[in-house]
Amino acid sequence: MNLSQARERTVGTGGVELCVAELGDAGRPTVVLVHGYPDSKEVWSDVAVRLAEHWHVVLYDVRGHGRSTAPTPLRGGFTLEKLTDDFLAVIDTVSPDRPVHVVGHDWGSVQSWEFVTVGRTEGRIASFTSMSGPSLDHFGHWIKRRISRPTPRRVGQLLGQGAKSWYVYMLHTPVLPELAWRGPLGKHWPGILERLEKVPAGDYPTASLPNDAAHGAWLYRDNVRARLSRPRPDAYAHAPVQLITPTGDSFLSERLYDGLEDRVPTLVRRSLPAKHWVPRTRPDQLASWIDEFVTANESAARDGGPVQQTVAQGPYAERFGGQLILVTGAASGIGRATAFAFAEAGARIVAVDRDAEGAARTAEMARLIGAPAAWGEAVDVSDEAEMEKLAARVAAEYGIVDVLVNNAGIGLSGSFLETTSEEWKKVLDVNLWGVIHGCRFFGKQMADRGQGGHIVNTASAAAFQPSRVLPAYSTSKAAVLMLSECLRAELAEKSIGVSAICPGIVNTNITATTRFAGADAAEEERLQKRTSRLYGRRNYPPERVADAILRAVVRNQAVVPVTPEARGARLLSRLSPGTLRSVARLKPPL
Amino acid sequence: MTGLAKAVQDANTPELRGFREVQRLAYACAEAVAGQLRSGVTEREAARMQRVWLRERGVRDWFHLPFAWFGDRTAFAGFKVPLQFFPTDRKLEPGMPFILDMAPVYKGFTADVGYAGCLGLNPLHDKLLADLEAHRELILREVRERRSLREIYEDVERLMTAQGYANRHRAYPFGVIAHKVDRVAERRWSPQVFGFGTQALKGLVSDALHGHREGWSPLWSPYRFSDHPPQPGLWAVEPHLGFRGTGAKFEEILVVTDSKDPEQSAFWLDDDLPHVRRWAEEKVAA
C-alpha cells in the first residue's frame, strides 16, 4: 500500500479547496495527520501506510500547500483561526460522529496545538501526538517567563532557541523568501535535506515544494509575531497529548517543553534520537508510538475509565518505551541487569543466553517490572549459524532490534605460556566472535532498515589495562573495544551509535565460571571461590553497569569505563601508560 | 513434621513450646498490624502499632524494637548506615510492598520474625514471596548436611542470584542471614540501646565470647568467623531478597540440635506460619 492508492476527495471551506486523502478502513477510529513547513501531506506517506493497517488514516494538504488551493489574498489567509476552520471542515467530512486522533509535525503540530487548546473543537479530538512544533501560545509564555525572571540558565535557553530560530526571522522579510524558494533554494532543497537532515531520497519532497514553501511563509507572517507577543492565557489542552521530541532537532530546543505539564493535564513524553524530519527518518518508531497511544485512548474511551498508564516510569522511559532490545549473556550478571533496566523503561526484551532456563527467567522477571513483552532465547553467541537463525527469527517475529547489547563473555585467567590453543579459541569464540556475529547479523538489519539504532558492546577495563594473568581475556576485550570504535565510525552515517562499555571489577558470576589455565580441577575451584569472594568484597553491583549502559545509549557515548578502577585505568592508559605496565607485572594475591 | 522431629520437640516441650508461643504471638501481631495498614500510614505509625499490640499482650522486653519498611526501603535501597533501618515518615501507598520485623521477648522467650506483604496487588511482590520457599528448603537441607554456615550463606546467595535477585540481608549488621536467639532473663528494668534490648544483647555478646574461644559465632555471616558447622541452638533465620526497589523476607526460628539423625539435627520451630501457609495454598490453587 502507498499514498497513491489513497481515496481522495476535495473539501471546500472558507474560499479554499482542500485535498483530502484517506487510507484504511473508514469504520475504524480516525487518525488525522497534519503536515508541516515546507511540506505537503506526502511527508507522512511512510507513517500513513503503517498506521492504515489498524486505523482510518486521513491526510490533507494545508491551504496553499500541495494540491489544496491558496487563499486570496495570501496575507491574513493563514491565521490559526482559519486553519482551525479547515481542520473542522475536514473532520466533519471524514469522521462526522466520532472524535479523531490528531498527529502533527512541525507547523502541523503548531496548528494542532491550536486545535486542542481552543473551545470550539472540544469533544472532537480524542488525542493529539505532537512532534517538533510547540504551541505558539505556550512558546509565548515560555519566552515571557524567561524574560521576566532571567537567571543565567534561562537566558541561555532563550539565546539558544533564539539562535535556532534564525529561519523564522528570514521568513519575515518580504519577497526574498518567495524568490529563494522559487529559485535556487527550491532546486537544492532535496539535496540539502538529504545531506544535512539525513532524509532518505525518494518521492519526497514533491514537485509542489517551491509553491508550498512560498505560500507557507505566510504561516509565520500571519501568526508568529501576533501569538508570541500576546499568547492566549487559556491555552489548556482538552485532550491527552503525546509529545515526541527529536533530540537532534536543529530548529527546536528540547527545553521548549519544560513545564508543559501545567497546561496539559494528560501528557506522555517520548524522545527520539533523530533530527527534525522524523516522519521521513523514523516512520517505524512513530507509527508504533502513535499506534500505542491511540489504542490506549480508544480503549479508555470505550471502557469509560481513565487512560491506562501507557508509559513506564523511570528516567529512561521516554526514550526506550516500546523499543526492541536484545541482550546477549542475559541469564546473569550485567546482561540480566541490563535487560531489567531496559524492561523498567518499558522496552520489549529479547534475552539471549546459552542457559535457556536463565534466559527464560530473565524474560519472566522483565515482564513483571514493566516490559510489555519479553522473550528468552537459548543461543550460543559463538555459533555463527545459530546467531544467523536467531537474527532471522527475531526480525520475523518481534521486529528489528533498536538496541543490541553484545554482552556475553567468559573469563580465562592464567599465564600465556600455560594457556592452550583450545582455551584461546574458546575465549575468542565467545568474547570476540560472539560480538562480531551479533554486530554482523543484527547491525546489518539495523542498517538496512535505515532508521537508526544503537549497538552496545561489553568490553572490559582489561581492554586497556594489561595484565600478566589475563592475556587471553584482555586480548579479546581489547579487540572488542577496537571493533566498537571502527564500527562506530562506519555506522555513524546510518545514525547507528556504537558504545563500548568497560565495567571493571563487578560482582557477577563470571568469576565462578572463569577458567584458570594451568590449574588442576581442585586448584581451579579454589581460585574461582577466592576471586568470587574478592569480587564480592568489592561488591560493585551489575545494576550500576546497566545504568551506565542505558546512559551510554541515550548520550551515544563511545567508550564508557564504569567502576572507579576502570576510569582510573582509562585515564592512566592515556596519561601514564608506564604505570599500567608496572601494574601489569604484579601477581594478584590469590 | 516427621515423628522423629516431634520426639525431639516433645523432649524439649517446655523450652520449645515457649519459643513457639512467642513466635506465634509475633506473627499474629504482624498479621493484625498488616491488616490495619492503610494508604497514608507511615513507617513510624506501623512500628508503634506493633509495639502497642505486643505490649497489650504482655510483652515487656525486646530483642529489638519493631521495624517497618515501606516501598523501596523493603529492598534497603541506598542504605549506607544502620540508622537508616529505623522507621521513617515514609507513607504507604497502594501497591507498595512493606516488611514488618519485630523481636519480642515474652515470658523470657525470644522470637524474631519478619513479615512481608503489600498493600493491594503487586505481582512482582507475589513472585518474590513465592521464590522465598526455595530458600527455606535449601537452608534446612544444608544445615542438616552440616555444611559450614559460610558455605550455606554462599549457596543461598547463589540461589538468589540465579533467581535474578540481590541478597539484601547483606545490608544487615555484619551482613548476617541469621543470628542466635536464646532465653532472656526477665528483669524489671531492661533498657534499649539503638532499639536493641540490653538483656538480649548481653546474651548475644556472651555467646560471641564463648564462641570466639570455641571457634564459632552466634552471627551467621559471609565472613571467615562463620566458617564452621551449625552450632546447636535456636537461630533466627532471615533470608532477604531484593529486586529493584522491591524486597521480601521471612524470618523464623530454626532449631539446631546435636542429634546424629539428620531429621532431628535441624528443623523449623513451627511450620504453621503465614508464609508457609501461603505457599501451601498456592500449591493447592495450582
From TrEMBL, chain A:
It holds the Pfam family Abhydrolase_1. GO terms for molecular function: oxidoreductase activity. The keyword Hydrolase does not apply. PROSITE patterns: ADH_SHORT. Keywords: Oxidoreductase. Residues 29-138 form the AB hydrolase-1 domain. The keyword Transit peptide does not apply. It comes from the Bacteria. InterPro entries: AB_hydrolase_1 (IPR000073), AB_hydrolase_fold (IPR029058), NAD(P)-bd_dom_sf (IPR036291), Sc_DH/Rdtase_CS (IPR020904), SDR_fam (IPR002347). Belongs to the short-chain dehydrogenases/reductases (SDR) family. This is SDR family oxidoreductase.
From TrEMBL, chain B:
Keywords: Aminopeptidase, Hydrolase, Protease. GO terms for molecular function: aminopeptidase activity. InterPro entries: Creatinase/aminopeptidase-like (IPR036005), Pept_M24 (IPR000994), Peptidase_M24B (IPR050659). Gene3D superfamilies: Creatinase/methionine aminopeptidase superfamily. Residues 19-258 form the Peptidase M24 domain. CDD domains: APP_MetAP. SUPFAM superfamilies: Creatinase/aminopeptidase (SSF55920). The keyword Hydrolase applies. It comes from the Bacteria. PANTHER family: AMINOPEPTIDASE, XAA-PRO AMINOPEPTIDASE P-RELATED. This is Aminopeptidase P family protein. The lineage of its organism: Bacteria, Bacillati, Actinomycetota, Actinomycetes, Kitasatosporales.
